[in-house]
Amino acid sequence: MFGMGFTEILIIAVIAILFLGPDKLPSTMVEIAKFFRNVKNTIGTVKNSLEEEMNVTEIKQEALAYKKQLLDATDTLEKVTDVKGTINSTMANLGDDLLNDDDEPTAKAPKEPQTVTFKKKPKKEDTTDV
Predict the structure, then answer these.
(1) What are the sequence ranges of the domains in the chain?
(2) Contact criterion met (CB below 8 Å) for 20 and 28
(3) CA–CA separation, 96 vs 118, rounded Å?
(4) pTM given for the model
(5) pLDDT tens digits, residue range 23-81?
């Protein structure tokens, strides 16, 4: 017990009886037992508190990991649903394409010149027999 042998404990008991006397020795032994019990309870409470704190730390780390995943998912969702940005980039690309194609004709020129008149065209007569 506490790294002491039987003879050492016996010597301490004899010295305690001499100094305290037989009247105070039992109450002193009860007080010493209460002290060791309180120390044991305090150590157990500290141990439980540390375990809870370590568990809280793990929970915080998991919560931060979930938060990071949610933020990444939110960013991805914003990129996918960013219709306005997509339209703006598409319009910018179309504008660039139109500016780059100035040297090449976009439509073929008509083969025959066309004239615009407001004269009525003659109707074709129906030549089918009834």
Answers:
(1) 6-100
(2) yes
(3) 41
(4) 0.37
(5) 888 888 899 889 989 999 999 999 988 888 888 888 888 889 999 999 999 988 888 77
| Percent helix / strand / coil, the chain, rounded to 5 | 70, 0, 30
| Straight-line distance from the first to the last Cα atom of the chain, in angstroms, rounded to the nearest whole number | 132
Distance CA 109, CA 107 (A): 6
Q: What would the two tokens of residue 116 be?
A: 């615009």
- Rounded Cα distance between 52 and 24, Å, is 42
Residue 16 near residue 28 (C-beta atoms within 8 A):
yes
Give percent above pLDDT 70 in the chain.
81
Per-residue tokens: 52:
């809870």
| Nearest Cα to Cα of residue 73 among 81, 63, 84 | 81
